[in-house]
Amino acid sequence: MIKEAVACNIDIVAVFVRCDYEYTDSIDVRESYVLNKNLFANIAQTETSQGIVAIVKRKEYTEKEFFGLCEDGNVLVLDRLQDPGNIGTMIRTAEAAGYKGIVAIKGTGDIFSPKTVRAAAGSIFRMPVLFVDTPAQTLAIMRSFNKRIISTCFETEINYFDVDLKNNIALIIGNEGAGISKELIAEADLKIKIPMNTQVNSLNAAVAAGILMYESRR
What we know:
Blueprint: H1 2-7, E1 12-18, E2 31-35, H2 37-43, E3 52-56, H3 63-69, E4 75-79, H4 84-96, E5 101-105, H5 114-120, H6 123-126, E6 129-132, H7 135-144, E7 148-152, E8 169-174, H8 182-187, E9 190-192, H9 205-214
């Protein structure tokens, strides 16, 4: 992950290295520390750490900067997603599927939590993230930048593979329990569903997002 950050020209603020860790690469860092095993274990977020931890500065984007990077491309909108594994997986899958950015509505879990960062892998450094406060603000921003707003819901007869999701869309994925907010569903330009056997009433949010995002590649 630290090599990924270096490759993406992310600002490395500080590095903490366990005393028995052998590190041969050189990186440009403001501060570096060597810690004994017990002290390092106290700051590491995993039981089997590789022996190196870094503090990096996250990038922040204005609306203009964000959509300058996402012009004519697809963006993924996270509507109050909570599970860090789901969020990280979606970010990583979004990059793999050719999406250009992530929009996180207030109430979504911490995009930069340790679990989310690990699940997203290097994609967390490459995918721009725009934070918005409300569904209404999200709708206004998407429309001002000419994104077609796509919502998933059960109250539709349109299957995802029967429509064009190739480019310039804002695909909304909703909260794991509550789904997409009613305002976003009501104002969406298109409502679609993933067909399922009647015995199954829902899919994991990250799985559903992956299916829908990869439709753009097909």
